[in-house]
Amino acid sequence: MLVHMSTAVSEQVPEAMSWSTENCTISRTMDILGDKWTFHVLREVFVGVRRFEDIRARAGVPRQVLTERLAALIERGLIRRHPYRLPGQRERSEYRLTQAGLDLYPVLVAMIQWADQYLPLDSGPPIEPRHRGDCGERVTVVMRCEAGHEPTPREVAFRPGPGAQPR
Amino acid sequence: MLVHMSTAVSEQVPEAMSWSTENCTISRTMDILGDKWTFHVLREVFVGVRRFEDIRARAGVPRQVLTERLAALIERGLIRRHPYRLPGQRERSEYRLTQAGLDLYPVLVAMIQWADQYLPLDSGPPIEPRHRGDCGERVTVVMRCEAGHEPTPREVAFRPGPGAQPR
DNA sequence: CAGCATAAGTCCGCTTGACAGACTCAGCCA
DNA sequence: TGGCTGAGTCTGTCAAGCGGACTTATGCTG
C-alpha cells in the first residue's frame, strides 16, 4: 500500500524506499529522451519535417546541438538516415522514424492530451492527433488494465516488478 | 496527407512546414517537463517518496537543482507542499502531486511501456503500473479515436488544429 | 572553365547551468 | 550547553549550450 492511502497521523516509510533506483525504467528512458531539444527534434520528425535545415529552422535548435542529437537518436535506434535528392542538387540525408521511434506515439499523444487540459490556448489546440484515412477522428490515450478496466490516475500505482533490486 | 505516404521519387513539402512552431504544444510541455531532473523528481513523488532528503538521495539530484526544480513544479501546479511532523522533530514540508500532476500518469505509463519493449532488462521490468486494490492487474496505455478504433502508430497522424498559426 | 548557390555541417569565444563539497539555519533533545 | 537532523544556501570549477562566422561538397549558370 502506498502512503497515499495512509490516514494515520504518524507517517509510514513508502514501499519504494526499499528499492534501488539503479536500473529505473524512467531513468533509462530519460537518458535517451531527457532533454528539451531531443523532444523538439522528434516532434519535427513526427510531423514530417525530416531535413537538417528545416528541423533546425523550425525548432530553433543550435546547429551543433542538432548534429549531436540526431547522431544520438540514430545510435539509439529511434531514427535512421535516408538519402534523398532534390532535382538539380546533390544527394543529401533526411531523418525518418524507425519502428522504435514510431512507437513513441502514445508518449507524445499523452503529453499533448495533458497539455491541452492544463496549458490550453484561447485559440484551441495547435496540433491534434487523428486517426488517418477515412475515420479522421481525434485520438487520445487511455489507461487500461489486463482485466479490461480503465482506471483513473488515482486508481493506478507503480509497484516493483520482477527486475526490482533491493537497496 | 503526410509525406510518409508519398511513394513518388520527387519529394513534397510536408504540410507541417506551413504551420508555425510558436505555440507548439510539445514545446510548452517541454518548458515544464523537458529536463532529466524534473522527470526523476516526478518519478520519486509518483512512487510515494516525498521528502527533500529522500528524493535527493534516491534520485541523485544535486541539492541546488532539487530546490530549483521543486519550486518550478510547485509554481507550475504539478505538486504542492504539505507540512508534516515526525515525533520529536520540528515541522517540515513534503511534496505531493496535485490533480494536474496525477494526470501525468498516462505519460509515465506510456514511457515505461515503450522502455519495457525497447530497453528491456534481463531480469524483467523493475517497476510496473498496476490497477490498485482487488484487481491488481498490469496497466498499459492504448490509443483510441473518438469513433472507438484503436489505431496503431502508423495509423495516427498529427494534424493542425484550430489553434494552429500559419507562418 | 569561373563563379555562385545551397544543405549540412564545423569552429570559436562567451555565457549559463550543473556539479561536489562545505557551510548555515531552525528547532528539538540529552 | 552542545549536538543532531532535515532542508536548504554558498562557492569555485567545469561542461554544455549558444549565436555567429567559417567550411565543404556538389550541381548549376554564364
Automatic annotation (TrEMBL), chains A, B:
Pfam families: HxlR
InterPro entries: HTH_HxlR (IPR002577), WH-like_DNA-bd_sf (IPR036388), WH_DNA-bd_sf (IPR036390)
Full protein name: HxlR family transcriptional regulator
Presence of keyword Ribonucleoprotein: no
Source organism, top-level taxon: Bacteria
Keyword terms of this UniProt record: DNA-binding, Transcription, Transcription regulation
Classification via PROSITE patterns: HTH_HXLR
Native source species: Kribbella pratensis
All copies of domain HTH hxlR-type, residue ranges: 24-123
The UniProt record lists the keyword Zinc: no
